[in-house]
Amino acid sequence: MFSQQQPRRYTAGITFEQMLERVRYEGAYATRAQAEEAVHAVLAAFGRQLTGDERVELAARLPHEAAVTFTSAIPATAPLTGWGFVKDLAHRTGGTAATTRWDTGTVLRIVAQLAGEDLLTRILAQLPAGYALLFGRAELTQAA
Which of 94, 93, 55 is nearest to 75 (CA)? Predict the structure, then answer.
């Protein structure tokens, strides 16, 4: 059984250090510490939004340190829209909506690559509107 306290390690992915370097490069952060701060803030906040099997599967695909951050928060009872997620994270971190949107998009695009297409599709199906863009995907809507 998967423990939320100690996520199992996924060895086929990348290391936490490699993840930080990718975030640092793609987000154009000046330091590794800035990239690490963004990763921890975004993953902790996103961990409050995702539940069920998708949460467990995503944690298994993240580097161990990232999975611990992701699973450390108890999921929220009412999920936020994508924009609501950014605004809430900005409030929690003291950042602006613009910089928080940048941080969120940078981190979640890397998470999307680690998750893979199938899992990402299931994650987006579980979440309210607005998250696809944060993961670097087009937001598809159905015509009324």
Answer: 55
